[in-house]
Specification:
Distance between the termini of chain B: 66 Å
Distance between the termini of chain A: 90 Å
CATH superfamily of the largest domain in chain A: Regulatory factor, effector binding domain
Strand content of chain A: 25-35%
Structural class of chain A: alpha+beta
Radius of gyration of chain A: 25 Å
Order of helices and strands of chain A: HHHEEHHEEEEHEEE
Number of helices of chain A: 6
CATH topology of the largest domain in chain A: Multidrug-efflux Transporter 1 Regulator Bmrr, Chain A
Number of domains of chain A: 2
Number of strands of chain B: 0
Structural class of chain B: mainly alpha
Largest interface: A-B, 35 and 46 residues
CATH architecture of the largest domain in chain A: Alpha-Beta Barrel
Largest sheet of chain B: none
Number of domains of chain B: 1
CATH class of the largest domain in chain A: Alpha Beta
Oligomer: heterodimer
Helix content of chain B: 55-70%
Strand content of chain B: under 5%
Number of strands of chain A: 9
Number of helices of chain B: 16
Shape of chain A: elongated
């Protein structure tokens, strides 16, 4: 079988161009390709600061449940934690996101891993028009239920307003005084000796990520009433 | 080269794996179009160097490229409807396939098989052949032929990929896979590349695709594959290139008029439908292979 006659030089350039095209496309795909290691690394980076502080199944065996008080009624003065946290004022904030329930009797690391994974894969939330900014992810801890030993959380973004109808949960965090820490559950678990009462309601963590979805910074804000 | 790629590709705004595949597939398609123009330029230069660049050949090339205009107009509209519909259906489906790189590779493989089935039906069902005959009507085989589309092509593609959606695959994965399969096929429309050895066993190649475009008796209705030729080998629709094919339709269509190119088969079908004596004959003309006639 013979092809039509071709100029050898032009044909050579043509064949080279095809090879270059495939090489170029491979580089394009490689530059976009989120390999599993990267995804896993991203998840680990997100979870590491949390996992280090949360009770694991081993520690849970010794302490069946996270040592949270029933209800915040008295100042947190009868504890030995003398850690000084910075007291800051925060403005009113609305968060739009996905709701989850964390069960305090189960492995928190596994639960949070699932939470972040589902959040990452939820395209509709990322594209919701009510999302104000995607540069910061907010994780709101609310509705601590001591009877059922669970905490309701919402993970998402700052929203433009709370009135726009949405398929997602909207949580309004009123303005007020907050302790600035690293982890909400840390502070809940070991309240500081401070001149304020922890509310255990609508405290939140703020995560800033880089372009590879690694955590650049993580800050927790725990409301206090003085 | 990595720096050039980093300059050309900005992935900082991507937030999810579906974002990755969406942007990557569109980028690949866009760059394939750039390379396709380079290939076409080299082919025309080669034709000129070998005294093959006749007025007819040049006009045929232009005629193929011009079909892109109506194609993109309908593509924009159909794609918009398809995207909305696919996501609406996806939300209703209670089962969902995982959204990760492995599932994307699976979608790519299944989309390639879907393309094979779709392509088979485009040749074997006359209603679909109305659209696909535009692509086969050129008697020239160069990269411009890869651009030769019917304005009805987007409709057929959207319909055939619904089963993948019903399986629970993410719509973005399905669209991205289809874009990559279409992008792959631009480089196989030429007479510059001969046989490629072991690659011919697995992949669709210029040799296999020349056979597909041939109107010779031994080449008709063969080699339907998209990226992979294995489906043709498995299902018995494979034919090896033994001589240079004769391109075009079995009843040649030589017009360069863009309207005639788009609607050439329509009057023929209407004439047949009008002479149908029963419902069975009517749907036979519509749904049976091109050239079917009722038994007398």
């Amino acid at each position: 079988m013979e092809l039509p006659r071709h100029n050898p030089l032009i044909r050579g350039i043509y064949l080279l161009a095809i090879l270059m095209m495939f090489l170029f496309m491979a580089l394009v795909i490689k530059s976009y390709w989120p390999n599993n290691q990267q995804m896993s690394h991203w998840n680990d980076q997100l979870l590491a600061p949390i996992a280090e502080r949360l009770p694991t199944q081993d520690t849970a065996a010794a302490q069946p449940e996270v040592n949270l008080p029933m209800k915040p009624t008295a100042p947190a003065t009868n504890v030995e934690n003398n850690t000084q946290y910075e007291l800051v004022k925060r403005a009113n904030k609305v968060v739009i996101g996905l709701p989850f329930t964390l069960r305090l009797n189960e492995n928190m690391e596994t639960q949070l891993s699932q939470v972040w994974r589902q959040f990452y894969n939820h395209d509709d939330l990322h594209k919701d028009p009510n999302v104000k900014s995607k540069s910061k992810i907010l994780l709101v801890y609310q509705h601590f239920n001591s009877a059922h030993s669970n905490i309701e959380i919402v993970i998402g973004y700052a929203a433009k307003n709370s009135s726009q109808s949405s398929d997602f949960s909207l949580v309004e965090i009123p303005a007020g005084d907050f302790l600035k820490a690293k982890s909400v559950l840390d502070v809940w678990n070991d309240p500081p000796k401070t001149a304020g009462v922890l509310n255990y309601q609508k405290d939140y963590e703020s995560y800033i990520l880089d372009r590879e979805f690694n955590i650049i910074s993580q800050t927790a804000y725990v409301r206090v009433t003085r | 080269m990595d720096q050039l790629i980093a300059y050309l590709i900005d992935s900082s705004h991507l937030l999810s794996i579906t974002d990755y595949f969406e942007q990557m597939s569109v980028d690949v398609y866009d760059w394939v179009l750039v390379f396709a123009l380079l290939f076409l330029g080299l082919e025309l230069l080669d034709d000129a160097a070998n005294h093959r660049l006749s007025k007819n050949r040049l006009l045929e090339t232009v005629s193929s490229i011009v079909t892109q205009i109506p194609y993109y107009i309908t593509e924009i509209m159909i794609f918009a409807v398809a995207v909305y519909s696919y996501f609406a259906i996806y939300k209703l489906i209670p089962w969902k396939m995982p959204v990760n790189t492995y599932s994307f590779l699976l979608v790519l493989l299944m989309a390639d098989f879907t393309y094979y089935v779709e392509h088979f039906c485009l040749h074997k069902i006359r209603l679909f052949w109305l659209a696909h005959s535009v692509h086969h009507s050129s008697n020239v085989m160069n990269t411009a032929t890869a651009f030769r589309f019917s304005l009805f092509d987007p409709i057929v593609s959207a319909l055939f990929h619904i089963p993948l959606l019903l399986m629970g695959f993410h719509p973005i994965f399905i669209f991205a896979a289809e874009i990559l399969i279409q992008a792959y096929q631009f480089w196989i429309h030429n007479e510059m590349v001969g046989k490629l050895g072991p690659l011919e066993w697995v992949f669709n190649t210029p040799s296999h695709h020349r056979v597909h475009h041939g109107s010779d008796k031994e080449y008709i209705d063969t080699n339907y594959g998209g990226i992979l030729i294995i489906w043709d080998r498995i299902f018995g629709t494979f034919a090896k290139e033994t001589k240079l094919p004769t391109y075009g339709l079995t009843t040649p269509m030589t017009s360069k008029n863009p309207f005639v190119v788009q609607f050439y088969e329509f009057p023929k079908l209407f004439r047949d439908l009008r002479k149908a004596k029963s419902i069975g004959q009517f749907f036979g003309y519509l749904l049976r292979p091109p050239g079917w006639q009722p038994k007398q």
